[in-house]
Design brief:
Keywords: Amino-acid biosynthesis, Histidine biosynthesis, Hydrolase, Methionine biosynthesis, Multifunctional enzyme, NADP, One-carbon metabolism, Oxidoreductase, Purine biosynthesis. It catalyses: (6R)-5,10-methenyltetrahydrofolate + H2O = (6R)-10-formyltetrahydrofolate + H(+); (6R)-5,10-methylene-5,6,7,8-tetrahydrofolate + NADP(+) = (6R)-5,10-methenyltetrahydrofolate + NADPH. The protein has 295 residues and is an alpha/beta fold. It is built from 10 helices and 11 strands. Helix content is 40%, strand content 17%. Strands 1-11-8-7-5-6 form a 6-stranded parallel beta sheet. Strands 3-2-4 form a 3-stranded parallel beta sheet, sandwiched between helices. Bound molecules: NADPH dihydro-nicotinamide-adenine-dinucleotide phosphate. The site of NADPH dihydro-nicotinamide-adenine-dinucleotide phosphate has 24 residues, from α10.
Amino acid sequence: MTARIISGAAIAGRIREELKTEIAELKERHGIVPGLATIIVGEDPASQSYVNSKVKACQALGIFSLNHPLPGSTLESDLLALVDTLNCDHRISGILVQVPLPEHIDESKVLVAISPEKDVDGFHPVSVGRMVIGQPTFLSCTPAGIQQLLLRSGIKTSGSEVVIVGRSNIVGKPVANILMQKAQGANATVTICHSATRDIAAHTRRADILIAAIGQPRFITADMVKPGATVIDVGTNEIGKTAEGKRILCGDVDFDNVKAVAGAITPVPGGVGPMTIVMLMANTVKAAKLAHGIS
Ligand code: NDP
């Protein structure tokens, strides 16, 4: 048996087409153009490349984008003032502050300064709180992308055993919350494992859906996977560079061996990665609609 490959690239492509239509309709019927403001502080190449991809994705879909590259020496007070200006800018539906921020800036202060109505990254405590209690909100992009991958691949979550390895605030915890919710019928039974979990394999072997968000190359091996399970690999680990200097990536799952056991699996690259950016675009469109009272 070899697992069905869940192509995040293909699913993200379909969502992009849906968004293009939605954006064109918003413009035609209501004269609305969604707008995304990105802020990057400092010159970290990985962060620059993430922000560039987000700006490019906006351009491809017809979303107005405004990038603010700021020097690494920017004062926290100046960054907070910029966020405040963008909170009041009617062209801007969503604000994204690329993290990590330099050490002299308190990340939590900045994330809280973003208006929850423009919190398209879904990191504001108000957005997180709404998610936990099952209210409509902006879901953070990677977890929302994982939910879409499952939904659009016909993988049933209701009543399923979901095991997540990793408990970060940006992946593990929110994806657990989303998949356990009654509100949209996700209804999974969720277990979260982390570095203090005693016997991780004992948990992962029970999983109908196994989600790996650890940051350790090929951590999940074939003997840790129940035959026929769905395996979602969030890991994006750089394991080297090509002769041309391109990053060589591998996931948290030992893909070549696990695909012989699993029923369905996401590849790295081309799995969860492409979903994250498209969900940011979807949140920006949603923010624009909410700001204009369009449901
Ligand atoms: P974090 O480092 O914030 O969290 C990693 C989690 O994994 C922690 O909860 C940690 O446990 C747990 N963990 C680490 N090592 C082990 C171990 N040996 N055994 C059990 N648990 C372990 O990472 P992120 O959640 O931010 O990211 C995880 C991976 O996903 C990374 O490779 C990252 O690059 C990738 N990623 C990909 C995205 C995409 O769009 N494709 C988006 C975001 C992340 P503890 O809490 O106990 O320390």
